[in-house]
Amino acid sequence: MAEAKDRPANPPRLDGMTALVTAAGQGIGRAIAERLQAEGAQVHVCDLNAATLTGTGFASVTQCDATDADAVAGWMAPFGRIDALVHAVGYVHQGTIEDCTPQDWRRSMSITLDSAYVVIRAALPRMKAHGGSVTTIASVASSTKGFPRRAAYGAAKAGVIGLTKACAADYLMDKIRFNAVCPGTVDSPSLRQRIADLADKLGGLEAAEKYFLDRQPAGRFGTPEEIAGICAFLASADGRFVTGQTINVDGGITI
Ligand SMILES: NC(=O)c1ccc[n+]([C@@H]2O[C@H](COP(=O)([O-])OP(=O)(O)OC[C@H]3O[C@@H](n4cnc5c(N)ncnc54)[C@H](O)[C@@H]3O)[C@@H](O)[C@H]2O)c1
Fold first, then answer.
1. DSSP letters spanning 97-166
2. How far is C-alpha 249 from the geometric centre of its chain's CA atoms?
3. pLDDT digit of tens for each residue in the chain (255 aa)?
4. What's the rounded Cα separation, in Å, for the pair 215 and 148?
5. What is the pTM for the complete model shown?
6. Ligand 1 atom closest to Cα of 111?
7. For 14-185+223-248, CATH number?
8. Which member of 91, 117, 153, 171 is catalytic?
9. Is 153 a catalytic residue?
10. Ligand 1 neighbour 186 (Cβ under 6 A)
11. Is the Cβ atom of 89 under 6 angstroms away from ligand 1?
12. Among the atoms of ligand 1, which is closest to the Cα of residue 68?
């Protein structure tokens, strides 16, 4: 048997595959798109913010609001076949249910949950003939675990998990696998923004960062690349018997 050191670090497990990734402009979505490309897939990405996609080198980049069914249909129109879809769009409202206005609630549901409905529904006709894999980026802040000040976010991500599992059951015989990856706290631009937003309340940036670090039993944030590796596994033949699962990638939060 080959020694671990003799094996390539990133075998091209996704050669010949067409993969689509949403929210690939930055953070977790970007790392996923880069990893799928590094493993051999033709990766087509979208993001709401066009500026984040310039100069990225993916097979195609499209400015697209994933909550807009017409825009998503336009994005997917050129793809006759999709082998792997990773849906990473999400929005964190920080607050209790009392802090959450009806507008905050609707925005949370729209960006996090409605987008999953729209994107998965548009991709399915391009997967049914041959099978494939759909991975949603949910969160451990969901039906998995309650966190303070995550009322709307937790509810929306629980919805993403429910949708993912229901689709896994509905499309099992079409050989389309659906899994939800549930990160813990991951160092991304939006986490840095949440830390900044909390700094005033907690008496500075350091205290705000500590607030988030204290949620992490491993003592550090996860990296976007650590989430991307699991997504590559799920998209590949290595994950072919895995469907309907929530996979916590959380540095020990759910031990
Ligand atoms: N960072 C974390 O700690 C963490 C933890 C658990 C789950 N997640 C989830 O992982 C995903 C990515 O998180 P991140 O922290 O890397 O995000 P981020 O906020 O840093 O990046 C999100 C990207 O999504 C894009 N986007 C926002 N709304 C969009 C829309 N309607 N259509 C298309 N693109 C849109 C943004 O322009 C941005 O480029 C999200 O679903 C998030 O909820 C993140």
1. TTT--HHHHHHHIIIIIIHHHHHHHHHGGGTTTT-EEEEEE--SBTTTB--TTBHHHHHHHHHHHHHHHH
2. 12
3. 445 566 555 568 999 999 999 999 999 999 999 999 999 999 999 999 999 999 999 999 999 999 999 999 999 999 999 999 999 999 999 999 999 999 999 999 999 999 999 999 999 999 999 999 999 999 999 999 999 999 999 999 999 999 999 999 999 999 999 999 999 999 999 999 999 999 998 999 999 999 999 989 999 999 999 999 999 999 999 999 999 999 999 999 999
4. 11
5. 0.96
6. 31
7. 3.40.50.720
8. 153
9. yes
10. yes
11. yes
12. 31
Q: Where are the domains of the chain?
A: 14-185+223-248, 187-221
Angle between helices 69-76 and 115-123 (to 10 degrees): 30
CB of 88 within 6 A of ligand 1: the answer is yes
Which of 62, 91, 188, 211 has most ligand 1 atoms within 8 Å of CB, for mutation?
188
Cβ of residue 254 lying under 6 Å from some atom of ligand 1: no
